[in-house]
Amino acid sequence: MRRAISWDGRATGVGSLPHADPPSAVAFVLRHFPDAPFWPQLPRRAQRETMLEQWDDLGDPDAPADDRRHRAGLARFVRVVARRPASTRASIVKGQVTGPVTLAGATPSASAVRRARRTAIRGVIHQARLLRGLARRVLIVVDEPALGRATARATRAALRPVLDAIRESGAFAGVHDCGEPRPERLAGLGPLVVSFDAASHLALVLRRPAAREALAARLAGVEGAGDGVAWGIVPTSPAGDAATGKSVTPDALAERIRAAWRELGVSSAVGRRRSLVTPACGLALHSCAAAARLARLTVGVSAALR
Prior knowledge:
Elements: E1 10-11, H1 22-32, H2 67-70, H3 72-83, E2 92-98, H4 100-103, H5 110-131, E3 137-143, H6 152-168, E4 172-177, E5 193-196, H7 198-207, H8 209-220, E6 228-234, H9 238-244, H10 250-263, H11 268-273, E7 275-279, H12 288-305
Parallel strand pairs: 1-7, 2-3, 3-4, 4-5, 5-6, 6-7
Helix pairs in contact: 1-3, 5-6, 7-9, 10-12
């Protein structure tokens, strides 16, 4: 069995940033998220770096991966972190890959889903190979903003092989859904981190018995080492701002998470051990100044919980 991991309320990001040049983006990540840094996705740099096109070079199993064109943030992140002394690096690094439901498109055929699944698995294996030399623990999150359009059965069929590939690579697995979350659909898929837009949807999740039960199970570690919840509690959209109201301070946002722990029957110690803190979604649509403000707020929430 794998050793248990403590996520320890660390702050990390969903993936995308507004920067257009990789050095600035990686410097931003390492400055703001030193405890669980992630490689930055840079959709403003080029169309080929958007989440639906970023993995195109991996769709052909005979073609070599081209990080410098499609994932310049990953290439830069690996170079910079690898040059750092091992004693100064974080114990956890994070990667992300667009999931097969989203990659397959709005009206996917069975062949489109299979192709998208193969592409996502190649993306997992490729980045896991690069990231596992940088830290003792690697977390790879499958980004699935289109998850809500799939049935529960289709969700499990599409995601299971990708999540298995993550674990077989030696990494820990996660799934991010910035739409209306249905964490119950991820039950039975093995240990993973459920990442969701808590800024907009926390109250909704807590009102739905199946969703409550699913989150409580992840916080209890029911499916094994690596279970957890990434609370996207820092609002990144007007909907998140409206749900949060005027209480957009680190202490107030941390208290929303603590209140959720209490409602789910989880102690603060267990909740912290199985929680990460993130913005509600990626930050690419914001200015660099706004992204810095949201990053500082995320780190502040993490500090308030720890």
